[in-house]
Specification:
Helix content: 10-25%
Number of strands: 7
Strand order of the largest sheet: 1-2-3-4-5-6-7
Shape: globular
Number of domains: 1
Oligomer: single chain
Order of helices and strands: HEEHEEEEE
Structural class: alpha+beta
Length: 122
């Protein structure tokens, strides 16, 4: 019985995408290939960018990370030479359409090299 419960538990974890730190990525409606991750976890640009990039992104991707822990939307754009990141105030239900996602007030901007060097843009 314990063996069956263990197997069922492992199958459930696999089905839920437990290997993804922030959750499952999905497409942004009416966009040209943009992706979004909606999470209850805090996303810290200085701590989490490179790990997120390595776990989720491929060359040329644009990702929106909607964090309900911080009420922010972080946009990560792979420019081909570095990552350009902008952090915006979250606007209610913005994640449902490309016309509104990332439309909140700009809070901060960063350039991040692929090796993790961070340059905050003033």
């Amino acid at each position: 019985m314990k063996r069956i419960l263990l197997i069922l538990g492992l199958l459930l974890l696999a089905a839920c995408g437990s290997d993804e730190t922030y959750g499952k990525a999905s497409d942004v409606r009416d966009s040209d290939g943009w992706k979004k991750v909606v999470t209850s976890k805090k996303f810290d640009v200085e701590e989490d960018t490179i790990d997120f990039y390595e776990e989720y992104m491929e060359n040329g991707d644009i990702y929106y990370i909607i964090s309900f822990a911080t009420n922010t939307t972080t946009v990560i754009r792979d420019t081909g030479t570095h990552l350009y990141i902008s952090v915006h105030e979250y606007e209610d239900k913005e994640e449902h359409d490309a016309k509104t996602i990332g439309s909140g007030m700009l809070l901060a901007e960063y350039n991040v090299s692929y090796d993790g060097e961070i340059d905050k843009i003033d």
